[in-house]
Amino acid sequence: MTSELSEMPRIAAPVSVASLNGRKARDILIEPDTAECAALARYLELSALRKVRFHGTLAPVGAQDWELSGSLGATVVQPCSVTLAPVTTRIDERVIRRFTAELPEPEGDEVEMTIDETLEPLGTQIDLSATVIEALALAAPDFPRAQGVAMNEDGVLRAAPEGETPLDDDAVKPFAGLKALRDKLDPS
User: How many Å apart are CA 26 and CA 17, to the nearest integer?
Assistant: First the structure.
């Protein structure tokens, strides 16, 4: 994903791990304002981002680890991957990330990915912006489609204005009719 913004927008302050109470969960509410939503839309290459809201808790797990869990809600607008018409999608996603102090650092050129994609290394801070923005980017459709644009039973994507018949392979081959006429006139 290339972006016109070189830096990820900040929609929440990072949380210092040292400031957390190891016996008590902290409520987290992130609701970016209009300007922050516009910056985030540019960063994620969305046409618009009408609303974003994350509500959850940051709770201690064991002696050192922390778990961020909550609900992400957003309304994103993207161009249809076929027609470029604007497509509005409502996102309601459950987000869980576990920040663990015992996560081994990757070594070497080749790195095996962990099976648990919720695990994150625990540093001195927990970056709430990065976590929420990553969850939003993963939840947004990769190939949004406008209403009426769908795959047919033959697996081919077709689109046409309302009331029109989509073009098929035969319709875009101008000499197909001449070949049929030739075959009819010369049956040999």
Answer: 12
Measuring CA to CA, how many Å separate 77 from each of 26, 43, 47, 170?
32, 14, 5, 35
Query: Both tokens of residue 124?
Result: 């001195």
* Structural contact between residues 86 and 80, judged by C-beta atoms closer than 8 angstroms: yes
Specify the amino acid at residue 89.
T
77: amino acid identity, one letter: V
First to last CA, the chain: 57
Query: What parts of the chain have a pLDDT lower than 50?
Result: 1-3
pLDDT digits (tens, 9 = 90+) for 51-69: 999 999 999 998 888 999 9
Q: Minimal CA–CA distance to 78: which of 46, 120, 32?
A: 46
State the DSSP code for 4: S
Per the CB < 8 A criterion, the answer to whether 86 and 47 are in contact is: yes
Can you give the pTM of this predicted structure?
A: 0.71
Look up residue 169 and give its two tokens: 């392979």
Q: How far is CA 109 from CA 36, 104, 106, 131, in A?
A: 37, 15, 9, 25
Identity (one letter) of the amino acid at 110? E
Q: Are strands 48-61 and 26-30 parallel, antiparallel or unpaired?
A: antiparallel
**pLDDT tens figures, 65-88:** 899 999 999 999 999 887 888 999
Cα(27)–Cα(20) distance, integer angstroms? 11
